[in-house]
Write a structure and sequence with these properties.
Layout: E1 6-12, E2 29-30, E3 33-34, H1 35-45, E4 51-56, H2 61-72, E5 77-82, H3 87-99, E6 111-116, H4 124-137, E7 139-145, E8 152-153, E9 159-161, E10 169-178, H5 179-200, H6 224-230, E11 236-239, H7 250-268, E12 273-277, H8 284-295, E13 298-301, H9 302-310, H10 318-338, E14 343-346, H11 352-363, E15 369-374, H12 378-393, H13 404-413, E16 424-426
Parallel strand pairs: 1-4, 1-6, 4-5, 7-11, 12-14, 12-15, 13-14, 15-16
Antiparallel strand pairs: 2-3, 6-10, 7-10, 8-9
Helix pairs in contact: 3-5, 5-6, 9-10
């Protein structure tokens, strides 16, 4: 299937009042570059995004065009347009610009990626996942399961309800939609908002709906609300990243600085080995691919070799072949690291003995290594197994079916690691 055109709307029209700074937050420097630079750079380097509409304050357009777009050479920024009083006003103006033919290459039948310019840690992997999902479901948003218990409070701040945490997601951006779908939803929403505002100010008489309620203007907090409220298209939640934070307060900026320093320090380290530890079907390979892209590393996978050599069935010698391949890849990883390249070992390291032996192997050769553990809840794990088995049964992926026999074998082998064994916990 041919790729459809994708236009990003990057929002940078906020005042940043909570930053306690005289400078709008999108222009505050993060490691020497304006905060908005990071989101635009992600779009610039993406194979998914074709062009970009940057929304900023009306008084900032000339500055943004000269000091951001031109200075840093953002070729995908097709236009800088003025935003509105509220976030949804800014999105609507960008959507109208697209619908009215403002882009050099029209985007009528493609997709729109709406992203907060104050989220500097957008990755190509997130963009790819969103594109893959929107092609099938028409509307999706980047999000992550909440980690903490959430309480619903009454007006006096007393807790009255504790929702099931497994059903709660923290919404991020980008939020991605068919161009026509989100445009039509916003048109209906803006008409509703305008009418409600006129009723409240007395310009129009206040008419009750069928239930007898006078409807106030909607409190619009994200773009998905427009689709949820004014269409019958469900919005799919797509995994973003816990690092995909929004910079709102000075504390957020400090966290962003620390995250960038950590990434920079790793990138400047001597070549090392990343060992991916986790349950079968926990998301190790997906995470390994993210590391590979981030560190330009060489990824070594036992499953990849086994599938290439034997297909899905290696017979009674499966474990013997697996052991030999692992030993070979250990040796090969040393060669690669000594040539100056990072290496990722993508297999489970299920037992404490294997983890200890692997660390000793590299320490004895003066090679730095890190264990990264994919730490997921049982409910998420079961969902991933079910999803993988479904894809295998539909022949959408070439992988091992995780049946009862394989599950029982795994349960007898896996030993959850202790803190002393793990360098980086990945809580997806």
């Amino acid at each position: 299937m041919d790729k459809k055109r994708c236009t990003a709307i990057v929002l940078a029209a906020g005042s940043g009042s909570r930053m306690k700074s005289g400078v709008a937050k999108q222009f505050i420097k993060l490691q020497g570059r304006p905060l908005i630079w990071y989101a635009l750079q992600a779009m610039e380097e993406s194979s998914v995004v074709d062009d970009c509409v940057l929304v900023t304050g009306a008084g900032d357009i000339s500055y943004v065009q000269e000091e951001i777009v031109t200075k840093y050479g953002f070729r995908k920024v097709a236009a800088v347009v003025a935003g509105g009083a509220e976030r949804y006003d800014s999105v609507y103006r960008a959507l109208r610009f697209i619908a009215d033919g403002g882009l050099k290459v029209p985007n009528r039948d493609g997709y729109v990626f709406i992203h907060d310019g104050a989220r500097p840690f957008l990755t190509e992997e997130i963009l790819q996942r969103c594109y893959e999902q929107v092609c099938g479901c028409r509307a999706c948003v980047a999000a992550m399961p909440v980690k903490d218990t959430v309480k619903i409070a009454d007006r006096d701040d007393f807790a009255i309800q504790t929702p099931d945490r497994s059903t709660l997601w923290q919404i991020q951006t980008p939020q991605v939609f068919e161009t026509q779908l989100i445009t039509e939803a916003y048109e209906k929403m803006m008409a509703r908002q305008k009418k409600a505002a006129l009723c409240q100010t007395g310009v129009l008489p206040q008419k009750a709906d069928k239930s007898g309620k006078i409807l106030p203007p909607l409190q619009i907090t994200d773009d998905a609300m427009a689709v949820e409220t004014f269409t019958d298209v469900p919005v799919k939640l797509v995994r973003g990243s816990y690092e995909n934070i929004k910079i709102t307060t000075p504390e957020d900026m400090a966290a962003a600085e620390a995250l960038l320093r950590r990434r920079s320090a790793r990138a400047q380290k001597a070549a090392m080995v990343f060992l991916i530890c986790g349950k079968i079907c926990s998301g190790k390979s997906t995470y390994a691919e993210r590391l590979r892209a981030e560190y330009n590393a060489v990824l070594l996978s036992v499953d990849e070799i086994m599938l290439a050599m034997f297909g899905l069935y290696a017979g009674e010698k499966h474990d013997e072949y697996t052991e030999k391949i692992q030993n070979y890849l250990f040796e090969k990883s040393v060669e690669i690291v000594r040539s100056g390249h990072h290496v990722i070992l993508d297999w489970g390291f299920w037992t404490k003995r294997r983890r200890s032996a692997a660390r000793e192997y590299y320490q004895s050769r003066n090679i730095a290594c890190e264990f990264h553990y994919i730490d997921i809840s049982d409910s998420v794990w079961e969902e991933r197994i079910e999803r993988r088995n479904q894809m295998v049964s539909e022949k959408k992926t070439e992988a091992y079916l995780i049946d009862d026999n394989l599950s029982k074998k795994f349960e007898g082998l896996f030993e959850p690691p202790t803190d002393g064994e793990i360098d980086v916990y990945v809580r997806d």
